[in-house]
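Input record (one chain):
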Amino acid sequence: MTKRRLYWAFIVVIMAAASACSPAAEPTATPTATATVTPTATITPSPTVTPTATLTPTPTLTPTATLTPTATWTPSVTPTPSITPQPTVGFTFDNWQRVEVPASLRGDITTPLIVFANSNDRTTITNISTPSPENNQLIVYYVTPGQPNSRTPIITLDSSTGSQIFPAPNGSGLAYMRLDGLYMLNLRVGLGGRIAAMPSLAQRGINSLPAWSPDASQIAVTLDTGYALDIFLYDSQGSGRVNLSNSGAYDFYPVWSPNGRYIAFVSDRLTCPTWTPGEADACDALIDPQPEGGTVFVYDFQRDTLNQVGDVYTTEPVRWINNRQFVIAGGDQLDLLNPQRQLYLADVDRFIPRRVVAAGDEDSLYLADAWTRDGSLVFFQRATTNTTDLVLMTVNGTIVRERRDDLVFPRFGMSAAWSPDGTRLAIGGVGGVCPYGVRVVDTNFDFIARGNPPPSMCNPQYAPNGRFVAFTGVNPRVDGRVDLYSASPSGFDAVNLTSDLRGQIIFLGWVGGSSP
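The corresponding structure, as predicted from the sequence alone:
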């Protein structure tokens, strides 16, 4: 290429560049699409929507931080009013009362005596035809069997006490309820007083009765501890008390062994170690149902040990049949749709209950059982869906004999007692429903006595030495009058001990004496 051509080419390039920068070229630059449209600049979806920044569900809802039920409502730490502890019963010995006790009753009572109460609101009325106010008196008597003239009044109470009178086995103590609490009378010194200011023996719905030690030195009482029940031992001198069970669970139904070495009671501690809020494994009174029964424990005073007796559930106290053996009534009798009651025999050597049942009879209810003192025989009322009969059976489940037609009692309407030597069995009714006269049988279930009423036989009990049997009898010929009787071990020679008393007779049991 010549120099001239190069020169003109260079000129052309220069002119083209100049034309691109001159004002005449502005229309090609005016669209500025970037400035008017620029969707990224005007819409900017990320800054305006940003769901993560505007919703942020985790910081705004945070249910764990705002509700925190554990932190704001913790009944185990801060009890609400519905589980506020109930008032407890503190120790007291007040409302003292001096009682004149005959000298013959101040020491050991060597001959068994019968204890009964007579509620007669007309005791002070000398002329029946003269209107006089009622006195509401209830008098407790001791009487020698077969000797109605030996009646000795011990103490006069208000009739509101009713049958809530508990004599000590040896006769030297008496406990009783008044409207303002539980009282104790020491007959050795003739002094009584209130030991517990409580309106009722039914604590937290459980009617656990006081239980005297055999020597009457202590009495076991079930009391409310704020959240549950404990068993306290009160000294008969009124000097103090000791919390025997002290567990935080429901402990109730104390029963002493005949020799006083052991005390058995029922507790729910296997299912609920404690009802005290805030303690480990505590039950919640707002959620968990209040117990109506439990399993059996036995405290050994000599060894200072507490033993669990299997896992049989029961809703009633155990019954000692001798110093080593006791009976547990298993099952829940309070279940109206499916009531249960089985018999278990346990001893203090192994504390393993063994069921006593006839072969193939596992579903029957064994009611009102009475045991010989050696534990070899048991008599009971067997109830099924369709039948109710009386059965005499060995402890191994062998049926000695059954009766269904000649001794018919309503379900839960029979009571029976063995003589201490195990040769006689007295059978009667309960609560005034006593269709038969004196009925006493032997170990073969053959009748020894088979009298006709009056009197009928209710709630028979043998004396500790076995020389008498006492019972209440209903006389339908005298407006259903109830009297107290004593008879020979075979049921003969019955003597009315209360024929000259008016009002209601309450048979409380035997005191004093010793076993044969």
